[in-house]
What does this fold into?
Amino acid sequence: MKVVKRPEDFRKTNEAKLSHRWHQVKLRLSSSTKELMTAFLFRWGCIGVEETDDGLVAYFPEEVAIATIKRQIEQIVGALSVRANQTNWQPGSRDWLSIDTIAEQNWQLAWKMYFKPIFISQHIVIVPEGEKFVPTPNQIVIVIRPGQAFGTGTHPTTQLVLRALEKWLSPDMRVLDVGTGSGILAIAAAKLGARSVVANDIDPMALENAHQNVQLNQPLPPINFLPPSVKPAGKFDLILANLTSQVLLELLPDFNLWLDHNGKVIASGILQEAKEKFVANLHIHDWKLLEQISQDEWTCLVICPKS
It folds into this structure.
């Protein structure tokens, strides 16, 4: 198991017992669809997700209408399979989805078991809330409360942005974090000395989680979180965007509007198999590639407009 995610609503004491029995839902799917399906699972009442090499394992309280959940999963799978032939989902097969009932588990302990301090670089460390950690004088610690929002620091796409941010950020920069999720990238930018940080997200629950994480990292320079209905205004020297290839391409015109002269975008969430096509699209839209870094099957690109 690579990571356990669970909503903030279920954050209790270490001895908390959330349910006597659970529905365990196993899904086999491609890497490019895991995050999207994770969001749907939590929306339907899931209280925890394990990311495996070939899919996801989700846990629902015994009380939920699991038959309804199964139908919703099948509908989403069917829709995505039609839209993206590159996925390895097999709705017609018998083994892509299984549902079992299991005994109770303590999710707070499970999370602490799998989420330990993550050393992004020599200077950046991600630490879960409640974990005792004594940093060295040159380490920047970002404390994260695991919640529904994406961005605990466990995923390669987040780690890639943090490494690129450490290299490309200078103290005079105005930073925009697009799709902030847990707020981890905005918090990192503030701690690394950005002049100002603005962040947005279309998910109100993500913004709530981001505000909680900001409080855990005080003292901290102010971060301006925009409501979902408000678009960024003004100019920025550096834009952080840990999204998907398609969304990144769709946002290129907006990036152009938001970037100041000589501004740059750190774009992550790009699968290695999609990188070549993505870079080709960049050239078509008059953007150029400054740097690329990779981890596992993911790529992060630093880009800027050609003119």
About this structure: Residues 203 and 298 are 24 Å apart (CA to CA). Residues 1-19, 86-93 have pLDDT under 50 and may be disordered. The first helix runs from residue 31 to 43.
